[in-house]
Amino acid sequence: MDKPLISFIVAIYNVEKYIINCIDSIIEQTYKNIEIVLVDDGSKDSSGTICDNYAKQDDRIKIVHTSNGGLSSARNVGIENAIGEFFIFIDGDDSISPEMTEIFYESALKYNADIVIGGRYNVFEDKPKETVIFYTEEGVLGKNIVMQDLLEDNLSSHTWGKMYKAFLWKNIRFILGRVYGEDIATMHLIYDRTETIVSIPLPLYNYRINNASLTTTYRPFKWMSTYLAFKERLEFADAYYPAMTTKLRSMTINFARLTLDNYLQRHEECDKEYVPEIIERLHSNNKFILKTPYLKWYNKILIFYYNLFPSVYAKSIRFIHKVFYNFNPNKFR
Question: Which of 15, 44, 196, 240 has its CB surrounded by the most CB atoms within 10 Å?
Fold first, then answer.
């Protein structure tokens, strides 16, 4: 029996330092029936040229050059150009172990899995890598357990490090215009479509954490993108998993407060239209905020402080952050 085609979707933007290692790690997979969809999202460095050279050498590689539209746009382009029965996402500065695809496929075949979840290594520039395993036993996971873990942020929302049956992505795309949290706004929709989810307790994905990455640097609309992602996930959970919303509602409220803090310091125009909604969320959840065990006491104090004295709070927010968080306005916390 011929093995099915598995599509790798690689979003690439200014990662010339890492992209060769990324592509090589895919080419070297022990599972050979793959296609590699490289989406160069308007890179200003040599990333696009490197991809072009690889495409000339390996006919399994497709290269798509686009104007810079962000990670959501690049992944969407990749989905639309992928023709495999399964999808695997990988970011252009990351890499994977040689046997990852084969292990994922054998597991999908054995259990008829819609999603296979693997572990990862967190790879740092200045300290040893660390292992992250979400489920320590191999096998089928209960869907409700996975959904609760996802909604409560106990399971990573990262799109990468997993293998999906392609049908899961039919009519689901990442939201354009978001600069962070695009996975949070999307992955619950994918998991909800599944019937069988399988865990592989092996660190097969190398997730690079560097000081210049989107994860660790500030960009306008980043806090708001994260808040909106949690808000949308909460709306979904309220509709379909209402018994699993307490911790998610707490996280959404806390991100609302943090996003408001960012706006009060920066007054960025891109955030302005959403601020009244955030203020309403903080004002309308006083009883919940008081009772929830998922908000720390000082976060509750800050929310009530804002609700009671918004003008004073706005004037003192920089000092508050310095005291409570040792806040550096150039970092995304």
Answer: 15
Prediction pTM value:
0.92
The 10s digit of each residue's pLDDT in 77-133 is 999 999 999 999 999 999 999 999 999 999 999 999 999 999 999 999 889 999 999
Contact 77, 66 (CB under 8 A): yes
The residues pairing with 64 across neighbouring beta strands, listed in sequence order, are: 39
Side-chain-side CA neighbours of residue 330 (13 Å)? 2
**Tokens read off for 201:** 């307790």
Residue 129 burial (CB < 10 Å; 0-12/13-18/19+)? middle
The DSSP 8-state label assigned to residue 5 in this structure reads P
- The span from the CA of 308 to the CA of 306, in Å, is 5
How many angstroms separate the CA atoms of 202 and 103, rounded?
Answer: 10
User: Do residues 38 and 64 touch, judged by C-beta distance below 8 A?
Assistant: yes
